[in-house]
Amino acid sequence: MSDPQFVNPVNCPRCGSSDTVDGSILGTLALGPGQVFRARRMPLWRRIFGLDVGIPSKARACRKCGLLWMTVSLAKIARV
Other C-beta atoms within 10 Å of 6: how many? Predict the structure, then answer.
């Protein structure tokens, strides 16, 4: 993978299989923030000010167990 921001193991973190494939998450709208991760029980003020963590469109999937995973910004997830 050439994108240094997209650092995911080639082996599946769930089952350890090396039968994984790169891909993209599709279906986000061009307008608005796109897909975001919002922690459960996030305080109201954080939701109001949009302190969600953006989900990248690049992902990896395991062909053995079906797990889909991606990497998000450590700085953003630390403040959730």
Answer: 15
22 phi and psi angles, rounded to 5 deg = -75, 150
Please indicate, yes or no, whether the overall pTM of this predicted structure exceeds 0.85.
no
Residues in the chain: 80
Report the distance separating Cα 38 and Cα 48, nearest Å: 12
Tokens 């080639």 appear where?
10
The closest of 15, 16, 24, 17 to 60, measured between CA atoms, is 24
Give the Cα separation of 57 and 17 in Å (integer): 22
DSSP 8-66: --SS-TTT--S-EEEEE-----SSSS-SEE--TT--HHHHHTT--EEPPSEEEEETTT-
Do residues 34 and 58 lie in contact, with contact meaning Cβ atoms separated by under 8 Å?
no
Binning pLDDT at 50, 70 and 90, where does residue 46 land? Answer: low
